[in-house]
Amino acid sequence: GEKDSNIVNEFGCLTGDIEKGFAESEVIVEDRFEIPFIDHAYLEPEAGISWLDDYGTINIRVCSQVIEHFRDVAEVLNLPHNKVRYIGTMIGGGFGGKEDITVESFIALLTLKTKKPVRLVYTREESLLAKFSYCFITGNITSG
Q1: Which one of 7, 12, 45, 88 is at 20 to 30 Å from 25 when CA atoms are compared?
Q2: Start and end of every Aldehyde oxidase/xanthine dehydrogenase first molybdopterin binding domain (predicted)?
Q3: Predicted TM-score (pTM) of this structure
């Protein structure tokens, strides 16, 4: 990544003549694939606590795989980034499912408005309803 950036890595995509590639292939495989609705169903549900410290900074302790979300929470609250502190906790399981913002904005907003600590823990039903999970996907793939 660059020194003054939070970009860790960039990926590119190679393009070419697809018809030529198929013409030169010994074998071409074509099929239709269906992936059903999937949820990560990790052991602990989405949860977090937030509080204001003596400097007026909103502290958020949350089980997340991406602590950089403090920027998004700051934008939701219309606060400078240095007024939101994100503290990651141990993760019992995530599998990529704890990369999105879940409870953070809600608890931070309630803390900002009430000036009191806030705790929110989703039930399994709330977890399934409130967050993005992998949706049903159907695709035709040709490979050669």
Answers
A1: 12
A2: 4-131
A3: 0.70
Domain span at residue 58? 47-130
Closest CA to 107 of 66, 63, 65: 63
List, as one string, the DSSP characters of 69-101. GHHHHHHHHT--GGGEEEEE---S--TTTTSS-
Using DSSP, state whether 23 is helix, strand or coil: helix
Contact (Cβ atoms closer than 8 angstroms) between residue 124 and residue 52: no
pLDDT tens for 86-102 read 998 888 777 777 888 88
Residue 113 is assigned to a structural domain of this protein: yes
Look at the chain and report how many structural domains it folds into.
Answer: 1
Amino acid symbol at 103: V
Q: Could you tell me if residue 55 is inside a domain?
A: yes
Q: Cα–Cα distances in Å, from 105 out to 25, 33, 38, 112, 142? A: 51, 36, 25, 10, 42
The rounded distance, in Å, linking the Cα atoms of 67 and 109 is: 18
Residue 135 within any structural domain of the chain: no
